[in-house]
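User: Some background: our group keeps a shared notebook of sequences we're curious about, and every so often someone picks one and asks for a predicted structure to add to the entry. Today it's my turn. The entry only has the sequence so far, pasted here. Could you supply the structure so I can complete it?
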Amino acid sequence: MKQRRAWQIGILIGMIVFVGGMMIAFNQEGEEASVKEMITVSAELEQSLPEPLSDTQEFPEVDKLLKDPRLQGATTAISVRHAVSGEVIYAHQGNTRVHPASVMKLFTGAAVLETLGEDHRFKTELYMDGKIQNGVLDGDLYLKGLGDPTLMMKDLKAFAAELKAKGVRTINGQIFGDDSWYDQVRLSQDLNWSDEPFYTGAQVSALTLSPNEDYDAGTVIVEVQPGKKSGQAGKIRMVPANSYLTIVNNTKTVAKKGKKNIQVERQHGTNTVIVSGTIPIGASKARSWSSVWEPTDYAVNVFKHVLEDQGIAVSPASKVGSSTVPKGAVLVADKSSIPLKELLIPFIKLSNNGHAEVLVKEMGRLPGGAGSWEKGLAVMDNQLASMGLDTKNMQLRDGSGMSHKNLVTANEVTHLLYVARSKPWYPTFLQALPVAGHDERLIGGTLRNRMKGTAAAGNVRAKTGALNGVTALSGYIETKEGETLIFSIMINNYLSESIHEVVDGIVVALVDVRLE
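Assistant: Of course. Here's the predicted structure to add to the notebook entry:
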C-alpha cells in the first residue's frame, strides 16, 4: 500500500511540474509559435491513436447474424464508422488483424492516387536504331514499355502505320522489347504457383499487351466454338491472334442438349495451353483468359506479326528478343494510356490483380527510383502513414490482395475510407467502387449480382475480396435515413460455400440502422 501511495504521489508531482513548465513556456516570447507547434504535434499523435470503442452502438440485427452457424470457427472482423465524424459506432474484433483479399486494392488505389495523381498516364514508345534507304530499315526496332497495361493490338497497328509513313517497307534487323522500366521479377512474392497460369496471376512486365478494354495485361483470350457435327473437336481461336502460344485442342462437340463445360489452362512454366471439355452444337462461344509466360516476349512476337500483316516485310534473318534502347536511337512514335482516374474503373470494379501490381511497381519506379515490389510497397507504406494510417499495425505484401500474408484490421480499413473522403481525388475513388445490384458491368462490377432486390441495391458502393477461406466487403452505405456509413467486413478461415450470404445480410441490416 505504501509503495502504491508513493507511486501515486510521484505521478501527481510529475503532473504539477509538467503543467508548471507549460505555463512558463506560454509566458515566454514566441508563445504563438509554440502553441501552433503543440497543436500540430497533438494532431499528429491523435491521427495515429486507435479509435475509442467505448461509445459504440448496439446493432441487434448484426449481432444476430454473427451467430450464423456458417461463421463457427471463422474469424469475423467488422468495423462501422459514421462518415462525417469518423467515429467508430460498431465494431466486432475491429482491431484483429486478418487477411483482406482484394480489399487490399483500396489501400493500393488510395496510395497511388495520393502518390501519382488522377491524371497520371503510362507510355509505350517505338524507337529505331539505323538508317532507312530505299524503303529498307537497315537496323533494329525497339518497343519500349513504361508500364502501360492498356497497350493493345490496335496500338501496335498504329506504330506500324507510323513506320510506313516514314517510308519503311522492309526491316533488315532485329526487333527488341525493352522492359527495363521495371525490374525482371514477374510474380509477387507470395503468389501460389498454381495461380500463375490464370489471368488472375498474370506476370508483370513494363512491356505487356492486353487483349481487350478490360486491360488484363499479359493475357490472351481463348475462344471455343462448337464444330459442325457431334464428335468433332471445337474450333479455337486466340485474341489477339499469335504464334507465341501453342493450343492443344482436347475439346469435343456434343449434341444440342449436351453440357457446355470448357476448361482452359496453360501448363505451368510454358506457353502450351490445354483446352478441354465439351460444347454443344449451336452453343454460343466459350471465352476464357489465360496468362502468358514472359509477357515482354509475347508483346514483341505479336508486334512482329502486326508489322507483316500491315505490309512491312521482316527479314528471315531477323529475330525477336529483349534489349534496352541504345543511345542515339530515334523515337518513331509513342502512345499514352488513359489517365489513372479512368483506369481505376476496371482496376477496382473488376478487381484487376495485374493493375494493382503494376501500380505498386509504378509507385516504386517514379518516387521510389526502382520499379520493384520492394520499393513500391515501401512507397505505399510511407504514403498511407502520411495519410494518418497505422501502417505499423499492418503487413503489406502485394498490391492486389492475392497474398495470404497481407494483414490489416477492419478499423484501419474504415479509417482509410474515412480519410479518403477528405481528399480531392475522392470522387474518382468513389466512382470506381462497385455498386450493389447494378446490372451494368462497369458500374456494378463484382457486386452486380449481389444484394439485388434488397434495400442495399444501389445504396452500397464497396470493394469485394475473395480468396480460399477469405471473403471481404468494405465501402460506403447510404442508410434509409439518409446517413452515410463506412463499413468493413472481413471473414477468415470459413468453410461454407455460401458465406457471402452472411456478409450481404450484414450489409442489408446496416442499411436499415437508425443512429442514436
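Suggested note for the entry: The radius of gyration is 28 Å. Residues 144 and 178 are 4 Å apart (CA to CA).
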